[in-house]
Design goal:
The chain has 2 domains: 147 residues, Aspartate Aminotransferase, domain 1 (Alpha-Beta Complex); 243 residues, Aspartate Aminotransferase, domain 2 (3-Layer(aba) Sandwich). Helix 3 runs antiparallel to helix 10 and helix 11 runs parallel beside helix 13. It starts with a helix and ends with a helix. Strand 10, helix 9 and strand 11 form a beta-alpha-beta unit. The longest helix has 22 residues. By secondary structure, the protein is of the alpha/beta class. The chain contains 13 helices and 17 strands. The strands form 4 sheets. The chain has a 7-stranded mixed beta sheet with strand order 4-12-11-10-7-5-6, with helices on both faces. The protein binds pyridoxal-5'-phosphate.
């Protein structure tokens, strides 16, 4: 069946919540995917920064197969070995001491928002419930996460939103300081804003937030849903900055394509949630945790983090060269394999042309093209992507 035949079937039965590209994907291998008509694409979108190990990773597929044959789901009424082992790896390779597993980025953020509220009330009293987030941020689509998201375009028609979320200017410490009061229980920030246009935080900004949170005894929470799990060339983006949070939210790359999210926190805050405070039927699911275990072990063993640093530098260099040649590119920014180019015009047409030429890309806001290939991408694949993009830019 053709792409278009699938699309017309899909439109009849799937809710119209996405502007989808006219493409139906059916399989993938490494950094490439194929559509329903067998056409091959180089994938620099990775399911929106998800497929960390690429498609069809043997270790991932085999481990999942084995786990699914053993036990696929058992709930949190019981312990399961995959969740325990995966949490141990996450703890052993971070500054955190406890994990809460969930299923998505929005849920990992929701967990952090609830934790912050409970912390504020327990530690500083009933009126301590305000959370400061950043303008231009993106934290997900639940009502809590969308309130935390500092972009009105995602919030329209949803009022009233959650009470007690205040928005500061990203990378502007004074604007955060102005909002902090005895009502503040936490500050939530993406170390690199993803959907907001691939905007890295300044180290100095994060350090000042850290000092402020220490001084006020409030939580510093990082949303590493997109920039965590190897994207920056470090397992966690906070390592790239050398400024650690108290709480971190993760998802996307963690399961390498299998749905899983997680919130982690440091020991000092590990007794805030008690049984009954927070839960998820599927959280800690053995299959999802097995996927995460393979991703984490692979990142640690197979020098993938080194590859991210090396290829990330190479990609940035190539993008900067394009910037020298094409005036419409006004900025190149990012870290590791989370790079973006800002254009002086909307990017939709360029992305559509790239897709037609066999390269999957995704925007980040209306004027930024995002480059988030699988973390195993190599130099030749980057050259191929840049060639396709340049041929499209020549026509603009
Ligand atoms: C930084 C960040 N936080 C949270 C989310 C929400 O994640 P999910 O779509 O898995 O709910 C996203 C998704 O793009 C994200 O980029």
């Amino acid at each position: 069946m053709s792409n278009m035949e699938w699309i017309s079937r899909g439109k009849k039965v799937i809710m119209n919540t996405y502007n989808r590209f006219p493409l139906t994907l059916t399989e993938g291998k490494g950094v490439y995917v194929k559509d329903a008509e067998g056409k091959k694409y180089l994938d620099f979108a990775s399911g929106i920064a998800v497929n960390a190990l690429g498609y069809g990773n043997k270790a991932l597929v085999e481990a999942l197969e084995e786990q699914i044959n053993k036990i696929m789901h058992c709930s949190n009424l019981y312990w399961n070995t995959a969740a325990i082992e995966t949490a141990e790896i996450m703890i052993n390779h971070s500054i955190f001491d406890k994990v809460f597993f969930c299923n998505s980025g929005a849920e990992a953020i929701e967990s952090a928002l609830k934790l912050a509220r409970k912390f504020g009330k327990k530690k500083h009293g009933e009126n301590c419930y305000e959370i400061i987030t950043m303008k231009n941020s993106f934290h997900g689509r639940t009502l809590g996460a969308i309130t935390a998201t500092g972009q009105e375009k995602y919030q329209k028609d949803l009022n009233p939103l959650l009470d007690g979320i205040l928005y500061a200017d990203f990378n502007d410490f004074e604007s955060v300081k102005k909002l902090v009061s005895e009502k503040t229980c936490a500050i939530l920030v993406e170390p690199i804003q993803g959907e907001g246009g691939i905007r890295p935080a300044k180290k100095d900004f994060l350090q000042k937030l850290r000092d402020l949170c220490n001084e006020k005894d409030i939580l510093l929470m990082y949303d590493e849903v997109q920039c965590g799990i190897g994207r920056t060339g470090y397992l966690f983006a906070y390592e790239a900055y050398g400024v650690a949070p108290d709480v971190i939210s993760l998802a996307k790359g963690l399961g390498g394509g299998f749905p899983i999210g997680a919130m982690m926190l440091v020991e000092k805050y590990s007794d805030i949630f008690e049984p009954g405070d927070h839960a998820s039927t599927f959280g800690g699911n053995p299959a999802a945790c097995t996927a995460a275990k393979v991703v984490l072990n692979s990142l640690m063993k197979a020098s993938i983090l080194e590859n991210v640093k090396k290829q990330g530098d190479y990609l940035k260099e190539k993008l900067n060269k394009l910037k020298e040649r094409y005036e419409i590119i006004i900025d190149v920014r990012g870290m590791g394999l989370m790079q973006g180019i800002e254009l002086s015009l909307p990017v939709a047409d360029i992305i559509n042309q790239c897709i037609k030429s066999g390269l999957l890309l995704v925007g980040a806001g209306s004027q930024v093209i995002r480059f988030v290939p699988p973390l195993i991408v190599d130099k030749n694949e980057i050259d191929e992507a840049i060639n396709i993009l340049e041929n499209v830019l020549k026509e603009v």
